């Protein structure tokens, strides 16, 4: 939808900027009946591959074209010409831009400027071309009667599609954000959204940058999910929504009084068992037991035959990856050796050498979860089972363990009280735990505590060092920092 609108705006803007194309009034641009909009509540906006929507990013002309094209009942029915030289056929927006141009929603010409921001005037011009019967007069000091889009702006304002600014201006040459574009389109098409389902899909993490309480949350959800509307206006509810076709944020999610789980591929668990949880047809979880532990965790020592004296994070991770079926074709030493490195910042890589401890204790020899997850996922064949788990509560941790997942927990060596020291991190002083030690946490039992696969078997050389650590010892140390990396 964004892309289609972009093309329409592009035509008007081209004329406004004295380019080679003369922008025409919306009515004149039509060569007959306006293209019909689909009556279905189709998805007309999508997020980006990394799971964001970027609601506050300004809409481009290419995005506007794609946006509008998805709303048309017969987008490929145009018979006009299209001779843009800056719209290569192999670009993602080419089909939408060409279709709108042939329909007369964009004026034909030499350039379309797909990556330019679409202006408010251009966007309005595009929409009004879909409703050429619309009439109105602009009454803004920055939209004089002779402005090329004065009639279109007046019509859109009169219909309630878009408003001016509090200072009385319209800002015709300003851009509009992706969230604002959704708002305008929903008003034009009479789409309101289902508040309850919008809250559900956004709480499940449809977009990492659109929280359920975002001002345009319901608007964005309406644009992002195909559905059948029941009722109109504020009473609109959805049916026909298949949540299993959507991609959400992996992990557990509380929606109202219900618990849901999303797997490492971003898919909602339905009609299946996840550790001690049973997911029904709607994805609602029921807990069937209080204890669970992974029984297939291989053991690797950071000392025996490896001597990675401060490489606990990577060795603990290696155990977890193999337990989940990953990193089967790489040697442990290679995995540890190839860790990304940083001179002093653990957020950027391992500081120091995992094989060589710093006897002065001036180097904070560790790597933080986000970078460790990024590195570890590179050995997972395109999957992303590893994720930063910092800030997780004990409830969060227990749920992951009960689901059959494991966590690289940043604890302390031999479960001692945390010892803080001053470290220089890229020129800034930070107080960090000097007796940091990472272990793989791979089970939870209220009666036994937490199952630990500990790579530092200093007092158990040559032996498998896996044991249950009592909750009374484990939990205070976890709560001290709440630092870890989950492997799902």
3D architecture notes:
This protein is of the alpha+beta class and 488 residues long. Strands 8, 11, 12, 15, 16, 17 and 18 form a seven-stranded antiparallel beta sheet that branches. It has helices at 2-16, 26-29, 61-69, 94-102, 120-130, 150-158, 178-189, 195-203, 217-224, 312-323, 332-337, 369-377, 394-402, 471-481; strands at residues 228-230, 237-239, 251-255, 258-262, 272-274, 277-279, 285-287, 292-293, 341-342, 350-351, 386-388, 406-412, 420-425, 428-433, 436-445, 449-453, 466-469, 484-487.
In short:
The chain has helices at residues 2-16, 26-29, 61-69, 94-102, 120-130, 150-158, 178-189, 195-203, 217-224, 312-323, 332-337, 369-377, 394-402, 471-481, and strands spanning 228-230, 237-239, 251-255, 258-262, 272-274, 277-279, 285-287, 292-293, 341-342, 350-351, 386-388, 406-412, 420-425, 428-433, 436-445, 449-453, 466-469, 484-487. The protein has 488 residues and is an alpha+beta fold.
Characteristic key phrases:
488 residues, three-stranded antiparallel sheet, 14 helices, 18 strands, disordered N terminus
SSE topology sketch:
Layout: H1 2-16, H2 26-29, H3 61-69, H4 94-102, H5 120-130, H6 150-158, H7 178-189, H8 195-203, H9 217-224, E1 228-230, E2 237-239, E3 251-255, E4 258-262, E5 272-274, E6 277-279, E7 285-287, E8 292-293, H10 312-323, H11 332-337, E9 341-342, E10 350-351, H12 369-377, E11 386-388, H13 394-402, E12 406-412, E13 420-425, E14 428-433, E15 436-445, E16 449-453, E17 466-469, H14 471-481, E18 484-487
Parallel strand pairs: 9-10
Antiparallel strand pairs: 1-2, 3-4, 5-6, 6-7, 8-15, 11-18, 12-15, 12-18, 13-14, 15-16, 16-17
Helix pairs in contact: 1-3, 1-4, 1-5, 3-4, 5-6, 7-9, 8-9
């Amino acid at each position: 939808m964004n892309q289609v609108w972009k093309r329409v705006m592009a035509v008007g803007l081209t004329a406004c900027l004295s380019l080679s194309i003369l922008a025409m009034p919306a009515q004149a641009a039509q060569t007959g009946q306006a293209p019909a909009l689909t009556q279905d509540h189709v998805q007309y906006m999508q997020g980006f591959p990394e799971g964001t929507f970027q609601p506050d990013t300004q809409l481009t002309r290419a995005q506007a074209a794609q946006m509008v094209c998805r709303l048309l009942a017969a987008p490929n029915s145009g018979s006009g010409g299209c001779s843009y030289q800056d719209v290569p056929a192999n670009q993602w927006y080419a089909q939408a831009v060409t279709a709108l141009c042939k329909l007369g929603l964009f004026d034909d010409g030499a350039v379309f400027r797909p990556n330019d921001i679409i202006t408010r005037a251009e966007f309005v011009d595009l929409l009004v071309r879909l409703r050429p019967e619309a009439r109105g007069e602009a009454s803004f000091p920055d939209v004089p009667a002779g402005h090329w889009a004065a009639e279109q702006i007046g019509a859109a304002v009169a219909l309630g599609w878009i408003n001016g600014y509090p200072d009385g201006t319209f800002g015709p040459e300003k851009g509009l954000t992706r969230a604002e574009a959704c708002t305008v389109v929903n008003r034009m098409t009479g789409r309101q959204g289902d508040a309850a389902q919008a809250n559900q899909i956004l709480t499940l993490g449809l977009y990492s940058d659109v929280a359920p309480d975002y001002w345009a949350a319901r608007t964005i959800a309406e644009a992002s999910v195909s559905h059948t509307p029941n009722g109109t206006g504020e009473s609109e509810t959805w049916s026909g929504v298949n949540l299993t076709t959507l991609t959400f944020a992996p992990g557990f999610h509380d929606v109202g009084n219900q618990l849901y789980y999303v797997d490492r591929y971003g898919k909602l668990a339905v009609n299946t068992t996840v550790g001690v949880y049973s997911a029904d047809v709607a994805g609602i979880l029921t807990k069937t037991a209080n204890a669970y532990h992974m029984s297939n965790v291989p053991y690797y020592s950071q000392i025996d035959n490896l001597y990675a004296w401060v490489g606990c994070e990577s060795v603990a991770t290696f155990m977890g990856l193999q337990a989940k079926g990953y990193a089967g074709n790489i040697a442990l030493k290679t995995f540890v050796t190839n860790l990304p490195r940083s001179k002093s910042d653990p957020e950027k890589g391992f500081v120091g050498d995992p094989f060589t401890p710093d006897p002065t204790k001036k180097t904070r020899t560790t790597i933080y979860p986000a970078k460790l997850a990024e590195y570890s996922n590179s050995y997972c064949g395109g999957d992303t089972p590893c994720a930063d788990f910092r800030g997780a509560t004990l409830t969060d941790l227990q749920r992951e363990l009960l689901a059959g997942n494991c966590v690289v927990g940043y604890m302390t060596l031999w479960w001692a009280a945390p010892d803080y020291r001053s470290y220089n991190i890229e020129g800034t002083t930070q107080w960090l735990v000097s007796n940091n030690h990472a272990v793989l946490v791979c089970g939870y039992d209220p009666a036994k505590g937490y199952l630990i696969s500990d790579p530092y078997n200093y007092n158990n050389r040559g032996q498998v060092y896996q044991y249950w650590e009592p909750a009374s010892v484990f939990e205070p140390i976890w709560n001290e920092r709440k630092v870890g990396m989950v492997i799902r």
